Every structure is written in C-alpha cells, then in structure tokens.
C-alpha cells in the first residue's frame, strides 16, 4: 500500500486519480477506477444537463460504493454552460470530492465548503497552485507540459514543475501529465508529489466509453504523435496529430485567426471521433504518454499494476542504492 497525505485526505486506498475527461469521464470508467481503490472522476460537462449529471452519479453509485469525484471545468466560451446549475447538481448528487479546472476555483469555494466537499484544483503552474491553496482548496493536481489537453503557456515539464510545486505548497498535491505506470508513480513520489493523475492511460482502458479504433490508435502511436494547437491564440491544447490538427497548426502559424479554424476544431467533430472511431474526423485530445501505452487493460488493472509496479520500484530497484555496510 502506498499511503500518502492525498489518500488520507480523500479516504481512498491508492494515490491514483483518473482526471476529468470530456466525453470519456462517464460512470463506467469512474466507477471502475474508484472500485479498484483509486479516485474515478465523472466529467460534469459531458452530461447534457445538470439533471443528467445527477443521474450519472447515481448510475456510478450502482457500480461502486467507494468515493467518486466530479470534474467541473470552466473555460472561456461564447455560449457558457450553466456552471452554477452544474455546481448545484454536484452538491445535490451528494458528491464529496470535486476536481476544478480551467480557471480560478474561488467562486465555487464557499458553496463546496458549506457542503463539506473536498476540492482538488487542477492547474498548470506553480503560481496558480499557490493561488488555489490561498483560496482554500484542499489539494492541487499540477499538470506538466506533457499532459493531454491544456498545458498552459509556460511549457514547464513535470521534472521541474513537480519539485517546484513541492517547494511552494503546504497542502497535498498530485502530479499530472505523462504518467502511465508505476515507474511514473514512484518518480512522482520521489519528486515530492502525493500521487498521480492520469488521463490518456485511463482513456485507453476497457471501460473507457470511446471507440475501440481510438484506443488502438493510442496503442500504435508514439510520443511524437501529438500537436499543440492554438499556440498563437495563447490557449494551447495538446491533441492527437492527424490531418485536421496539422491543418489547424498550419493555418494559425500562417497568421490565421480563430474563425479561420472554427469549423475544423468544432467539438461535434471531436465527439464524432470518439463515438465512431474515425480518427481523422476532427480534433481529439491525447497526451505524449501515449508513447508508453501498449495495451488496453481494465481500469482496475491499471490502478493495481501502477501501485504494484511503484512498490516494486521503491522496494527493489531503488533499494539497490541502500548504503552498503562496511
Ligand atoms: C480525452 C481527454 C479529455 C480531457 N478533458 C478534460 C476536461 O474536460 N477537463 C479537464 O480538466 N481536463 C481534461 N483532460 C485532461 C486530463 O484530466 C488530465 O489532466 C491529463 O490527461 C493528464 O495528462 P496525461 O493524459 O498525460 O495523463 C482531458 C484529457 C483527455 C485525454
């Protein structure tokens, strides 16, 4: 058992979290991760309405009675979803752990705290992590440049970001971005984190509710097969390299603006990829760590083998360096 401040805080067995993932973080996946002793997270905005989110949580509860979290991602948007109503739904569903992401969590803190909800804020820089601690979050999840989705604009990979966060934070924090196995968990612990958050690894699992072709593409792809889109708009996103993402990069690098790529990056096209397995149909999110992913196991197996391998690394491989008695 790898017990840390993070597992103690949230009452979970293993310091392994399945981060919120649009179109992927549904009940089956979250429940499978939690049932195996990690923390599974349902993605609020994947549900069409706040009422559907309550139903999704209830569905997950039929699959596990262990703690499950909900991700609430707040990003700038032309037609914002009703965030306040989703927040209310989280409370009404009796959720006790929330992963916030995308913007300052302060506006949510009062309501979540009033209902005894633990808040894990995900961010991509030490300064945002420190700010989150100051506004009262219980833990931080810090995403390095390797991560799938939005890595921020600082471009600091985990090897520097994680110990920098350890130096600056007093509350528990987990490392995110580029983790797929127990070597990663052991390394995160060595760098000062209290656990890991994984997205791409859980996306490529049996319970992940996306097309088999996408999972097979992740297994086949290497760490070279991602693109960073929206760099010129200071809203960088790491996504799978395909004809669409390469075209978006080309248009923006040539001076194009958002309207010039709007149709290419439409969310409906990305959703189509996940539902129908046509990996060239649109933009879809994936991380560098796909280069370390070679199979499609159950989410429970991912949790168990991550923890087992971390223990083996800590006990056996690193034990080789114990001082030799003379
Ligand atoms: C398909 C996909 C969708 C994602 N959607 C979200 C999201 O809606 N909100 C969020 O906070 N993070 C989202 N993420 C990021 C993950 O929660 C996590 O931070 C990231 O995947 C960690 O990097 P890794 O993929 O290298 O493990 C998404 C990741 C993936 C792969």
From TrEMBL:
Protein name stated in the entry: Nitronate monooxygenase
SUPFAM superfamilies with a match to the protein in the record: Inosine monophosphate dehydrogenase (IMPDH)
Source species, domain of life: Bacteria
Keywords: Flavoprotein, FMN, Monooxygenase, Oxidoreductase
Source organism (scientific name): Agromyces rhizosphaerae
MF terms in GO: nitronate monooxygenase activity
Keyword Flavoprotein: yes
Keyword Oxidoreductase: yes
